[in-house]
Amino acid sequence: MKYIYLSLVLLLFQSCNKEVKYVKNIVVTDSIKILLREDIINPNSNIQPYWNYNEDLLSFLSNTVNDTIFISTYNLKTRLWKKKPLSIKGKNQVYSEGAFSHLSNSKIIYFPNIIPRALIINENGEVVNSYNYSDGYHLNYFSQNRSPNIYSNDSSFIFDLIEYNSLSNKNTYKNTDLLGIYDYKKQKLNKIIKYPDEFQNKVWSANDIERNSIVLNNKVYLNFTKSSKIYIYDLKGNLLKNSKVNFDKIKEAKERVKNITRNLLNKENNGFYFKIIYDKWRDIFYRIAVYYDTNKEIKTMQDLLSVIKKRTIGIIAFDKELKIIAKNKFSTNETKISENFYFVNEKGLNLMSYNDIESEELKFITLTVK
After folding, report:
1. What's the 3-state SS for the chain?
2. What pLDDT, in 10s, does the model give residues 8-54?
């Protein structure tokens, strides 16, 4: 009898530790090289550039020089570059560097870092509309999201919001709204969605409150860097669903401490969920995770440097109901891929492969769910 009992225990142990197998996988299927024009600076020269893409265009923002910013745009269909100047001052001023999103092939919506405004800019760099969505400076676009997914229609636009409340106050996570819906006609901002329960009654560092959203079919899909879950809300801010879409290697985040370096090291030690991305060709999402594939604790900068070759990008493909379709992981040391610059096309998810900042080309690795 005891042998039967031991066999059952062993079987249970094995089933609990058995890796889940998914029907599909995420694999490298191609690479893309884009030759830079002579007057366009490699975006790798900026650790985290502001950038955006749509079905036809891939764009990124250069640093400010003599009160001028340039948006360099590559047409993925014609394979031609265009460089558009934006002025910090004057008639068509954009005020500062900021995040932007393509509304069409001829218009972008632009969010300056220093002022709560949304600017509609045409292909000539002219500001054709300006929307002041706050009378004060207590809120703005959430600029930590360097490549926003701005939802816009004839009546409104929706964007990730930040309210400047103290991170050391536990009530911040109960009172702060995360998404802004600006009504064009009423010229009014409606704020929705608070931090979910897992954030409450604790304090978190700026690293752990990073997030991004995607609006699809009147639903908001929300990703938090520290959370193993994806959250779905309606456009009134009601929670519809949440579910784990995670890697076991990513640990539970620790509460905020006063030491900024310690908070940063905690984030690297725990791993984080960088962003969710929508693939309209396959009607699925990708969740990008970053972690170090090691059991060594990262407590100091020396620890971080010692495991840098273990840095890993994990990718989870999931559907609109948060069901996981496929998972895989890729060593950044071997593939040189980066989470900071990407685009999606009919071939799949294209992540930039780091090269020398003096390089005259951009290289992307194509990942496809198969």
Report:
1. CHHHHHHHHHHHHHHHHCCCCCCCCEEEEEEEEEECCCCCCCHHHCCCCCEEECCCEEEEECCCECCEEEEEEEECCCCCEEEEEEECCCCCECCCCEEEEECCCCEEEEEECCCCEEEEEECCCCEEEEEECCCCCCEEECCCCCCCCCEECCCEEEEEEEECCCCCCCCHHHHCEEEEEEECCCCEEEEEEECCHHHCCCCCCCCCCCEEEEEECCEEEEEECCCCEEEEEECCCCEEEEEECCCCCCCCCCCCCCCHHHHHHHHHHHCEEEEEEEECCCCEEEEEEEEECCCCCCCCHHHHHHCHHHEEEEEEEECCCCCEEEEEEEEHHHHCEEEEEEEEECCEEEEEECCCCCCCEEEEEEEEEC
2. 444 444 444 445 667 789 999 999 999 999 999 888 777 778 999 99
Is 50 within 8 Å of 99 (Cβ atoms)? Answer: yes
pTM of the complete model = 0.91
* Structure-block tokens of residue 93: 């001023």
Q: Residue 55 has which token pair?
A: 């079905």
Q: What is the pLDDT of residue 170?
A: 87
User: Residue 294: which pLDDT band, with cuts at 50, 70 and 90?
Assistant: very high
208 neighbors 181 (Cβ within 8 angstroms): no
Contact between 191 and 179 under an 8 Å Cβ cutoff? The reply is yes
210 phi/psi in degrees, rounded to 5: -60, 150
Q: 368 has which bridge partners? A: 27
Q: What are phi and psi of 93, to 5 degrees?
A: -65, 145
Phi and psi based region of residue 6 (left: phi greater than 0; alpha: psi -120 to 50; beta: remaining): alpha
Alpha carbon of residue 244 to chain centroid: 18
Residue 22 tokens, joined: 């998914």
The one-letter amino acid at 203: V
- Beta strand 107-112 with 117-122 is antiparallel
Question: Would the pLDDT of 336 be above 70?
Answer: yes
